[in-house]
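Re: weekly structure request thread

Next one in the queue (361 aa):
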Amino acid sequence: MPTINQAFKEITCKIVYYGPGFGGKTTNLQLIHGNVPAKHRGDLVSLATEQDQTLFFDFLPLDFGDVKGYKTKFQLYTVPGQVYYNATRKLVLRGVDGIVFVADSQATRLKDSVDSFYNMIENLREYDLEIGQVPVVIQYNKRDLPSALPLEDLRKHLNPEGRFEEFEAVATEGVGVRETLRAVCSQILKRLNEQANIVSDDEIIGERLGLLGETQEGSDSASGASTTTARTKAPIRKGPMLDIIQTSRWVWGGIGVGSGSITISTRPTPDGANEYTLSSRHRIFMVSRQFTRPMKYIGEDRRLVDGTQRTYHVLRDADTGAKTAPITAYVEQAKLPRVYLIYPGFMGDVHVGPEGEQPVF
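Done, posted below.
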């Protein structure tokens, strides 16, 4: 139940972003903080480990001013995704009024997302709360990545009965982030109205979140769950300057099928971003092939590889059509960066990595 100070006509609501490590929880808060008008937000406080993971919480107080006579504040927190910080996750959940569960859509992270979801349920029970007693919105993040599972597969594990409102998102591009926040805020205020007879104005909340732009909503007939895909203008994301030439190996179905070179070059643009060109000359099954593709910067991705946490810049096709398969490039952030590609082949994904090693993507 939100904290209500009748003397000062003030309402404070606590929202917790929950989910697996590196799923996009902190990215959500960072984007919200950067886009909500300054007069309606406080400072973003992050406590992180050496690997830049959230150790305790991110705290972002959003002040929506007077809503029907009450000064309304939403306090946003995230929890650490790592298993060994469970005591901290439990502590941050204390007094929660609404939850955004940020699931990582990648196939390799499905188990982590499911484990985190059930861990959230267990931690709520420590406070004598069942999941149905707290507003929950599910955000399926990283929908742009080629390894993202179909929505139906994610629902089967996280929302099989369609109990929770859902949003597809690409948090690094701002897609679905504020829409997710608006949904959980609306659910909290609706419940507040039912329990405390304090009428809130959802349109005011939406306006102050800057969400009155166009969205496209639809209902999935199979599950009955409402899923919203945002059509918002993504913020400009300026990626790094990259100038790379790499001898590479092509792998299909776990078997090496060819080799060649890949090149990535960068060109600054007038709007402050960077444009990338990915070129390849290679031989597959003794047949010479080549391609040149424009790429755009998506953001960062972190993975545990051979027991070491590695961070990658992610590039994606800027222009794809019916005759071109979308290519995703992962460029390791290192003194000698390694480049990995993945794209759909005729019968399964094609993986590309440095010569002499098995691709990690």
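Helices lie at 25-35, 86-92, 110-125, 151-158, 177-196, 202-208. Confidence is low (pLDDT under 50) at residues 211-225, 229-236.
Next request, please.
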